[in-house]
Structure formats: C-alpha cells, structure tokens
C-alpha cells in the first residue's frame, strides 16, 4: 500500500462521477485543467461554461495555502484567466521549503458564497476518521475547536446515526442535505480506495452541496481493482520533487518491473555514493553516513530489491555509476555497494548485473578516483563476493569486499576515512 | 505455551499457493531443529490436488495438496498457522477466507502491494476474533528452534550462523524483512541469540504492530529482553511508547528507528517501503527515537551503535543472573540439494538426455542454433525448418523447396488409403484428434507408405554397387522382393504420372546432379519392357531424387547419407506429410457429424 496524492482536478472528477453512481447525488461542479499544452480555444469547445461564466483559477500542484500565497485568481473572465496562467506558468514558487515551477492549473466557475463547510476523511489503521465543521475555509485552523470528528471502525458502515454527531448543530433545513452528502462522499471514499479526502471548503449552491476546494489521496496498490473507476489517473510527484533525467530513467525502469528500483540524487557533487539492496537496509546506509557527520558528502539514496533481473540491475547500476563518477575533481570518492543478509535473493545473480556495469565504467571509475566497498550476505553470497573481488583485481579499481561476518554499516566508516584521507 | 506465544516445536502450518523453495526451507529448518513433525501439514494450491514430494532431512515425504482452504483446514485441524504466498491481487481474499476458519489462529501474508482497505478488513476481523496477522509485505518470522515462516532467515548456513536452530533469550521485531535477517546475525554476535523474531512488514497498516509483538514477548518467560527496529513514517512506534510509559513492559527494550536521513531530502520522499515516507515531524525517525528513549527504551545514538547497546543490555542481564545458559547442540547436517551442489561446483552428475537440434534455454528458442525470430524474419519455410531440425544444417533453397514439394505431394491420397480409412473410422467412433491421427499413422509400415524409404535404400545400394538395371531387377526377383518405387495401379508407360514428371523436371532443372534419378529411369525403362504398368511411381521418384539431394548438395558426407537412409528419414517425410491429410480427414468427419462406422455384413465373406 502506498498513498499517492492526486490533483484537485482528478479528485473532483472522481467525486462527481462516482457520487452520482453510488449515491445518486448530482454535483453541479465544473473543472478544467490547464497546463503548457492547453489550447484555450479547444478547451472552450469542450467546456463551454468557460466563456459564459466568471471564473476562478489556481495552481493544481498538490500544495495548499494557495489563497494565502496570492496564487488564486478570482472572478475573472476567460481572457483574464489566460493572462493569469501565462504570467505564472513555469514560474518557480517556494512552498514549505520546496522550490519548483508551476505547471498545472485548475479553472472553475467563480461561486460567490457565504457559508464555508469543512469535511475531512482519513483512513487509519482501525477505521476512518471523519471530521466536519461549519466553520471551514482558510480560517479552519483558528476554528479547530469547532471541528467535530467521528471515528468509524472498519467493520461499520456510515449510518445516519453514526453521522449524526457531525451535523447535530446544523440548522434543520440543511442538516439532512449535508448528512446525505457526507455519507455519499464516504461511500465514494471507500469504493474508490481513497486514503485521504478533504474539502475545505465546500458550500451550498441553491441548497445543494458544492465543493470549492478539494484534496485527495488514493492507495495506488488498489489500482488493479480500480482501473476503470479511476480512469486516466495521474499520480504527480510531490511538489518540489523534480526528477533529473537519470532519476526519471530509473523511475520509468521501476514502474516497468515487479522489483523495486529507487534512485534519488541528494548532492551531485557528493563523494559518497550508495547502491544498496533492500528497502530497510538502504535507509540505514544513508542514515549512517549522516550519523557519522558526512551527510553533506552523500551523493544519493539508492535501493534495489525484490530480485530484479540481471539486465535490470545492469541498467540501474549504469545510471548510478554515471552519476557517481560525473565531473571528476581529483579528489577520492567512495561507492557503497551494500546490503544486509538476504533472505532469498540470489546475491551472485544480482551482483552479475552490477559487475557488468562496473566493468563497462572502468575508465570513469578510475578517472573519478572511486574506491568501492562491498558488503552483502545471503543465498550464494560466497560466489557473488568472490566475483566482486576478482573484478577489483581485473579492472584495477580499489575494491574491498565483506560478507555477513562484518557489520552491515562498517563500510560507511571506511568509505568516509578513505575520502577524507590525504592523497 | 505462554499467553501470546504463537509457535512451538509442534506448530504446523498450511501453505497457500505452493512455492517449492520456501516450503523446502521450512522443512530443512525443522530437520535442523530436530523437530519430529514437519512444520508444513498441507499445501493449498487452487486447481490442483494430490501430494507434493519434498525432503525432510534425507527422507522424501509427501505433503498433501488441497484445492480449497476449507478442505485443507478440515484435513489438518491441528494446523493453526496459515502462510499465504498468494499474489497481491488475491492475497486479501484468501487471507480473509483463512481467518474465517476456526482452526486458523495466525496468518502470515507475504505479498507486497495488498490494498490498504483490504488489509484494514483483515485487521478488523482478526481483532474481533482474536487472531494474529503478520504482514502483508513481510518475509514472516521465526521462533528459534521451533518454527519458521517461509523464507525467513534465508539459507541454512545463515540459520546455523545465527544460531536459529535453538532458542536464545531475545525477542526481536522489525518492519523490514531484509533487516530482520541482518539483525538475527547481529543479535547472535552479542547475545545468546533470539527466541523469536517477527518482521511485521513495511506497509502503512501492518496486520500486527511492533507493540503488539513486544507486548506478546513481554509475556513469554524465555524472552528476557526485546530488540525493536522501527522505521520513519507512520505512528506505530508511539503505541510502543505508550505501552512503555504505562508500565506494561517489564523487560528491557533496545530500540532504534531508522530513517534519520530523511531530513536530507527537501521534498517528500518515498523510501523502499510503502510505509516509509517522510511525513510530519511526529513520524520522523528522530522524534520517534526521542520518544522511545524518553519512555525508557534503550536507544543508541545511531544504527552503528545498536549492536553495542544490545550487547550492553544483554550483559547486564547476564550479570543480574537473569539469563539461563543455553544448552548448545550441534545441529544435524542438511543434505545438500543436487542443484545447489552442482551450482557450487562440489559435485557433478551425469545427464540423462542429450539433445542437439534445439535449445529453449536462452532469450528465445533456437532451431539448430538459429533463433526463431530470425527464421520468421528471413521468411524460412517448412522445408528450411525441417532441414534445421532433421539435418541440423541450413540446406540451399532448392533443397528445402524440394522437401516442401515432397510434403505437398504426399499430404493425402484420398479416403480409401488404409491410413485415411483408419482415421475416418476412429473419428466416427467419437475419438479425439490425436487418437484419430495416430490410428491412421499406425498403418504406415512395410505395406503402406514405406515405399519411399525402401526405394531410396535399394536404388542406392544397386547404383553404388554398379549393378546394371537388369542385374538389379532380376536380383530382386530372385530374392522374391518387388522393386519398390516401380509400378502403379492406373498409370502406364504411355500415361505417366504427372507428379513424377513434375519432380523429375524440378530435379533436372535445379539439382547439380541427378544420377540416382537417371538410374531409376533406366530401371523403369527395363521394367516397362516386362510390363506396361511397371512405371516409376511417385515413391520411386522422391526416393531417388532425395538420394541426389543428399549426394549432390555437397553438404553431407557418405556416412551421413548412409545413416540418413538407414534410420528412416524418408519415412519421416512421408509420416509428416500424411499427417496433414489424416488430420484433414478427421476434421472432415467431425464437421460432417458422421455416426459410428459399421462395416456392412454384405461386405464380409463369412466362411469356415
């Protein structure tokens, strides 16, 4: 299970479509997505309301507090929206410490409103918690004491009784409508494998619920069940996470295989690089370099697991080595080919791919004064380690090899000592 | 067994979705521990039933295989652990079915990628019914010297190295399955080893949590201290913090939460495990380590210092006299599997089959070294494929075209021929295609269909020995053998077989030499002088021209040619060709829905 944020546009698209199917509630919302490939004339053809309604435009980039950051255009006509987008598309903004360009906007009808309600559903271990407030909007945090929450155990359904505490203080004339809406949204939440859903706010238009702002997260491991229901869903990277070409290459490789291949560059000029087997161990190697005080020298985070094929390991290792050996500066570097004691992965088999890549990159390794440290255990590790040792002799790159008798992270210290030593 | 103890030396499991290696590893572990019964009572493999042969030490045992979970539980009522190796798509449904069985107490789900909502249903059901779920996305767990789930703890060497064949005093729980194995090794280095180890899996909502297991370990008297390896993301560690704060845990806990590196990443990062995601400050490794330390756990300064912290805690327990020395014993030797031994170069074993014509081990199957894609891309025909698979070489196009002509000419000869007749009768008896085909093929022999082979054999022998047509024909007559390839029921000297003419023209145009065919023609000239129906027939033409193909193409040595004739290649050509017709007749009868054939009385001479 992995929770993935989706764009507001998709959240609303899914809610509108499935609220109708599952609860018979017709949402009168319209949304259009705008990015660099948008042709406004074409868009207006398919979404005619764009030219007949006053509009709202805002970035649809998985970050909040857009109003507070002055990134929302209110009560505009289409020309103004186009101008608003033009001025901001591709422009870098900083949000929560992450800087990245804005690439996607959502455009919707401008809906003047007084009442702002808050609705939030989060999946937790033993059920879901559903929160509601009649004081929603950007002041929600100041009004947190007005938020009411019910915890619904997994085995229970959201009945009117279960829902009642949320809406008990609402005026009678809207209570039933909003209660039905909350129940309907919850049904969609469950049916589509949402893990998080928030509307802050939603309002009533002509007495009918109308979400103004919405966030959603889906469980991407449920994709196999929801292929049709989700439609062409996009799982954008978290805001600020811009993949370099090497990272996107590995990302694409990862999506195609049943194994797991992860690669993130932390510091392209770093002198300690890692290529670690296993989800748990890979984190610990990165931790250890940091704990030893050399976080600033750590080039990357890299993990491979789930028994990738030799060819996949080869492609993966090539990329890691290219980054690790880029722009030699005359100073020593270290590569940690680490891992714990595997349960069932054939160590020799996965090492074959790495060895092929190392052999190919011999001159680059030498040019960047790379020192390689290997530590691994598990099925067939003796053969794998012996081949690594032989490779070191063959290509003449300094290479030290350790098995399960050594501690897992001992090579981190060695790598640090190596790059810090003179000459 | 203490409350909370999940496994013992008699625990038996049902294994869902058979995988040979993990089951064998479990049985090897059993043998190593000196268990009397194998820990796998039964296997569930939807769609198959019977037995699966596996080793228990040196001995081979048969473990029953069941189609359904219900049947397996009914057959093995004492098996209370369900080990689920189903894919992420079906793991949830099969796990729920298993949880609903009254005999199942513990289930372990190996698959990674089980949807969160499905996992939550399992958690809710298990909680309501007092059952334990380990996983999803885990390797499982192990009770040293007693019971092991699937692939946990890896190889036998590692199990011995980590002293997992006998119980120690440490209870271990982690999220990561890979790291659990590493930690067994670490713990064995500095303590008397683990008593039990569980990997709860890397998902956001594991079926059972770190604190669930620590609280369980707290109740097991043999466990004297606990080691916990947590991970950033989620709030699971806080339930352990609460338990510690509320004094529910009476044994020392050494804990480390990995993921201190997350602060190096500017944006949100998904690490290797689904649950390992940098979220709020509360979910960070630093915050969790701090909270655990504040609650009284022994928390090292880094993973590097983890082993030392475990060592110090253990040594303190030893000093306090709380550790009962472990009774050491030497575990029995597990016989090595042949495949492993061969791979490691320790033994060699003779093969039982040799094959030289095709190889399906590489990227794609090869015929005589030529990959199938090349065969298709180069536009090879059936004749080329035959030359690769039968003659192990690429013959020139004129040869392969000739082979194809032979197949075309021999494909069928009408419904009255014995082979076709048999196929028809069999088809009408309602038999399947293969039965019909072989009943037809089985008539091929000395009297039907063998003439090509024989013609080639005798013509070659006669020609090579330099016999004149007269000597040859008369010699055969003396031996009482009809000259094969000569004679036709209808065709006459003045009304030659069209097929023979086509073949002869082809040979004369394309073959570098047609000496055998010309010899056959000379023989025909002589036999025609004896009777007008003794013409060279199609069998004789194919047989003699095939000799020319072999001798004239320059691609075969003399001994090779002799062998080809000797072992019946030409008969093979006939069998192959005629199969086309026999299959046709079978389909024809089936399509026409012909009833059972009964030979009419009138057509039988009843006599004494």
From TrEMBL, chain A:
Family classification: Belongs to the succinate/malate CoA ligase beta subunit family.
Keywords: Acyltransferase, ATP-binding, Cytoplasm, Lipid biosynthesis, Lipid metabolism, Nucleotide-binding, Transferase
ATP-citrate synthase ATP-grasp domain mapped to chain residues: 2-230
Thylakoid in keyword set: no
InterPro entries, per the entry: Citrate-bd, Citrate_synth_N, Succinyl-CoA_synth-like
Protein name as annotated: ATP citrate synthase
The organism's taxonomic lineage, starting at the top: Eukaryota, Viridiplantae, Streptophyta, Embryophyta, Tracheophyta
GO molecular function ontology, one term from the record: succinate-CoA ligase (ADP-forming) activity
UniProt EC number: 2.3.3.8
Location of the ATP-citrate synthase citrate-binding domain: 241-417
Cleavable signal peptide: none
Annotated localization: Cytoplasm, Cytosol
Pfam families attached to this UniProt entry: Citrate_bind, Citrate_synth_N
Keyword Transferase in annotation: yes
A GO CC term attached to the entry: cytosol
Any one GO BP annotation for this protein: succinyl-CoA metabolic process
Catalytic activity: oxaloacetate + acetyl-CoA + ADP + phosphate = citrate + ATP + CoA
Biological source species: Stephania japonica
Subunit-structure text: Heterooctamer of 4 alpha and 4 beta chains.
UniProtKB/TrEMBL annotation, chain B:
Locations listed in the record: Cytoplasm
EC number: 2.3.3.8
GO MF annotation, one: metal ion binding
A GO cellular-component term linked to this record: cytosol
Residue ranges of domain ATP-citrate synthase/succinyl-CoA ligase C-terminal in the record: 173-298
Classification via Gene3D superfamilies: Citrate Synthase, domain 1, Cytochrome P450-Terp, domain 2, NAD(P)-binding Rossmann-like Domain, Succinyl-CoA synthetase domains
Translocase among keywords: no
Keywords per UniProt: ATP-binding, Cytoplasm, Lipid biosynthesis, Lipid metabolism, Magnesium, Metal-binding, Nucleotide-binding, Transferase
Pfam families assigned: Citrate_synt, Ligase_CoA
InterPro entries: Cit_synth/succinyl-CoA_lig_AS, Citrate_synth-like_lrg_a-sub, Citrate_synth-like_sm_a-sub, Citrate_synthase, Citrate_synthase_sf, Citrt_syn/SCS-alpha_CS, NAD(P)-bd_dom_sf, SUCC_ACL_C
Subunit structure, interactors included: Heterooctamer of 4 alpha and 4 beta chains.
Protein name (database record): ATP citrate synthase
Protein source organism: Stephania japonica
């Amino acid at each position: 299970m992995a929770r993935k944020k989706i764009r507001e546009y998709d959240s609303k698209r899914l809610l509108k479509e499935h609220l109708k199917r599952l609860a018979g509630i017709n949402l009168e919302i319209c949304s259009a997505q705008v990015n660099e490939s948008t042709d406004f004339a074409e868009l207006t053809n398919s979404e005619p309301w764009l030219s007949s309604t006053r509009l709202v435009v805002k970035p649809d980039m998985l970050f909040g507090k857009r109003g507070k950051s002055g990134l929302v255009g209110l009560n505009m006509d289409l020309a103004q929206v186009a101008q608003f987008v033009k001025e901001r598309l591709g422009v870098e903004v900083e949000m929560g410490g992450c800087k990245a360009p804005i690439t996607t906007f959502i455009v919707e009808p401008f809906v003047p409103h007084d009442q702002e309600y808050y609705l939030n559903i989060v999946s937790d271990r033993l059920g879901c918690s559903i929160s509601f407030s009649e004081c929603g909007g950007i002041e929600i945090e100041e009004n947190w004491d007005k938020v009411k929450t019910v915890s619904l155990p997994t085995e229970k359904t959201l009945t009117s009784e279960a829902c009642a505490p949320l809406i008990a203080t609402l005026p009678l004339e809207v209570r039933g409508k909003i209660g039905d809406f909350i129940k309907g949204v919850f049904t969609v939440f469950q049916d589509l494998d949402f893990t998080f859903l928030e509307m802050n706010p939603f309002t009533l238009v002509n007495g009918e619920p109308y979400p103004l702002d919405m966030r959603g997260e889906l469980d991407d491991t449920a994709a196999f069940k929801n292929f049709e229901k989700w439609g062409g869903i996009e799982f954008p990277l978290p805001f600020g996470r811009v993949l370099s070409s090497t990272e996107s290459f590995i990302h694409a490789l990862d999506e195609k295989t049943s194994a797991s291949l992860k690669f993130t560059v932390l510091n392209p000029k770093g002198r300690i690089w890692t290529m670690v087997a296993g989800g748990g161990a890979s984190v610990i190697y990165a931790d250890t370099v940091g704990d030893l005080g050399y976080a600033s020298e750590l080039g990357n985070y890299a993990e491979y697991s789930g028994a990738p094929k030799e060819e996949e390991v080869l492609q993966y290792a090539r990329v890691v080595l290219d980054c690790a050996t880029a722009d030699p500066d005359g100073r020593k570097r270290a590569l940690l080919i680490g891992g714990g004691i595997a349960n069932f992965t054939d160590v020799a088999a996965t090492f074959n791919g790495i060895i092929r890549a190392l052999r190919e990159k011999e001159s680059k390794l030498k040019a960047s004064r790379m020192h390689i440290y290997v530590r691994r255990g598990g099925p067939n590790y003796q053969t794998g380690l012996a081949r690594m040792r032989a490779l070191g002799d063959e290509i003449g790159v300094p290479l030290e090899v350790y098995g399960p008798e050594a501690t897992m992270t001992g090579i981190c210290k060695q790598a640090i000592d190596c790059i810090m030593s003179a000459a | 067994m203490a409350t909370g103890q999940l496994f013992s030396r008699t625990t038996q499991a049902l294994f869902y979705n058979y995988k040979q290696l993990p089951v064998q590893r479990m049985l090897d572990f059993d043998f190593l521990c000196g268990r009397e019964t194998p820990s796998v009572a039964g296997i569930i493999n939807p769609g198959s039933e019977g037995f699966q042969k596996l080793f228990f030490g040196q001995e081979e045992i048969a473990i029953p295989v069941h189609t359904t979970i219900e049947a397996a539980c009914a057959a093995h009522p004492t098996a209370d652990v369900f080990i689920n190796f189903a894919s992420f798509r079906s793991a949830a449904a099969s796990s729920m079915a298993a949880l609903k069985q009254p005999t199942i107490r513990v289930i372990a789900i190996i698959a990674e990628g089980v949807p969160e909502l499905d996992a939550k249903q399992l958690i809710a059901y298990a909680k309501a019914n007092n059952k334990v779920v380990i996983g999803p996305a885990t390797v499982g767990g192990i009770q040293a010297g007693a019971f092991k789930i699937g692939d946990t703890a890896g190889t036998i060497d590692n199990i011995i190295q980590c002293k997992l064949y006998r119980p120690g005093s440490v209870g271990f729980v982690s999220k990561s399955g890979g790291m659990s194995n590493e930690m067994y090794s670490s713990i064995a280095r500095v303590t008397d080893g683990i008593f039990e180890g569980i990997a709860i899996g890397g998902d956001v909502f594991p079926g059972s949590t770190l604190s669930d297991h620590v609280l369980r370990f707290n109740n097991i008297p043999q466990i004297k201290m606990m080691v916990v390896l947590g991970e950033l993301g989620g709030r699971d560690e806080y339930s352990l913090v609460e338990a510690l704060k509320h004094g529910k845990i009476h044994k020392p806990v050494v804990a480390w939460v990995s993921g201190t590196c997350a602060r190096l990443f500017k944006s949100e990062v998904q690490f290797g495990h689904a649950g390992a995601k940098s979220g709020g400050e509360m979910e960070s490794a630093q915050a969790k380590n701090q909270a655990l330390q504040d609650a009284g756990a022994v928390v090292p300064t880094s993973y590097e210092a983890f082993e030392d912290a475990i060592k110090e805690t253990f040594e303190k327990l030893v000093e306090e006299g709380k550790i009962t020395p472990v009774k050491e014993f030497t575990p029995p030797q597990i016989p090595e599997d042949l495949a492993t031994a061969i791979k490691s170069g320790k033994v060699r074993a003779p093969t039982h089959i040799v094959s030289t014509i095709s190889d399906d081990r590489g990227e794609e199957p090869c015929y005589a070294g030529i990959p199938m894609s090349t065969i298709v891309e180069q536009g090879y025909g059936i004749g080329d494929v035959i030359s690769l698979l039968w003659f192990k070489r690429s013959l020139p196009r004129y040869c392969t075209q000739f082979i194809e002509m032979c197949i075309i000419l021999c494909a069928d000869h009408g419904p009255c021929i014995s082979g076709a007749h048999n196929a028809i009768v069999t088809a009408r008896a309602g038999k399947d295609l293969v039965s019909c085909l072989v009943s037809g093929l089985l008539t091929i022999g000395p009297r039907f269909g063998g003439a090509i082979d024989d013609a080639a054999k005798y013509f070659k022998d006669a020609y090579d020995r330099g016999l004149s047509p007269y000597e040859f024909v008369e010699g055969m007559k003396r031996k009482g053998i009809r000259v094969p390839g000569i004679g036709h029921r209808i065709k006459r000297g003045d009304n030659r077989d069209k097929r023979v003419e086509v073949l002869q023209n082809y040979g004369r145009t394309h073959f570098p030499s047609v000496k055998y065919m010309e010899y056959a023609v000379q023989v025909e000239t002589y036999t025609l002088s004896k009777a007008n129906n003794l013409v060279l027939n199609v069998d004789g033409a194919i047989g003699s021209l095939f000799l020319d193909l072999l001798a004239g193409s320059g691609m075969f040595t003399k001994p090779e040619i002799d062998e080809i004739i000797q072992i019946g290649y030409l008969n093979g050509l006939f069998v192959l060709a005629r199969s086309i017709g026999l299959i046709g007749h079978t389909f024809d009868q089936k399509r026409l829905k012909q009833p059972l054939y009964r030979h009419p009385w009138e057509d039988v001479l009843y006599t004494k």
